[in-house]
Known about the structure:
Layout: H1 2-55
Amino acid sequence: MSDVTSIASSIMAMSQSQTQDQINLSLIKMKAQAEAAMADMIMQNARQIQALSSSSGNLIDLFV
């Protein structure tokens, strides 16, 4: 009976480890997607700043 319990415990530990690995991988993917979205937004902002500075004679008005 202890052999069955030992095998069951090993299977449960492996299953938990695999689940944790899947969660970690999902978190890494989500972080990479968020970083890519942030990089896209920064590039869009840079293009807008460049367009605004070109159209206004290299002067940008900042309203604070």
